[in-house]
Amino acid sequence: MSLLLITLMFAAFQAASSAAAQPPQSTPPPAAASAPAAGKDATIPEKGATENAAVPVGYRIGAGDVLQISVWRELEASVQSVVVRPDGIITVPLLKEINVLALTPVELQKILTDKLQQFIHGADVTVVVREIRSKKVYLVGAINKVGPVPLLSNMTVLQVLAEAGGVTDYAKRKKIYIMRQENGKQLKLLFNYDAVIKGEHMEQNVLVLPDDTIVVPH
Known about the structure:
Strand content: 15-25%
CATH architecture of the domain at 136-216: Roll
Largest sheet: 5 strands, mixed
CATH superfamily of the domain at 136-216: Outer membrane lipoprotein wza domain like
Structural class: alpha+beta
Distance between the termini: 140 Å
Number of strands: 10
Order of helices and strands: HEEEEHEEEHEEHE
Number of helices: 4
């Protein structure tokens, strides 16, 4: 019996030694918490001024036009809506009265930016023409829509007539004329509707100017 006990004890000792010799299994490190996307919560809002989408290139501001003046991140220096007075003046915060007559929006932006530098370092100004009220042509007579038509871009006589819904069935289409003031004199420009729509006498389809009056006789 003593030999059997010794044998069992020896076997147990070998098993324990073998287990101790094996390296311990490494526990995988915990997954690192994913970092938030850089700048996601710190995004600075984009500048939100509206473009002068409906204003023709080179448009010059006139009396009656409605402007929006935005100073980036300076709400108190901005103006959501201001009407150009008959004398061409607008009133804006900090600068008081500014003459804007015959300026383009870009030219006015530069003037305001330069003048605001003494109050706001690095002022970023955007000028938007919200409504064009200063440039109009007038239609009278046998027109489907009598009255003023705003000139939002360069327009010919035919385009203005189309904008007003065209002439009526009783219009004397060959006797249409444009009344225009030029150098203190009143001019009368003839317009033969029937000829122009056929591609004839295209020289009569002139560009209209602000304050022209198109007369369509009955």
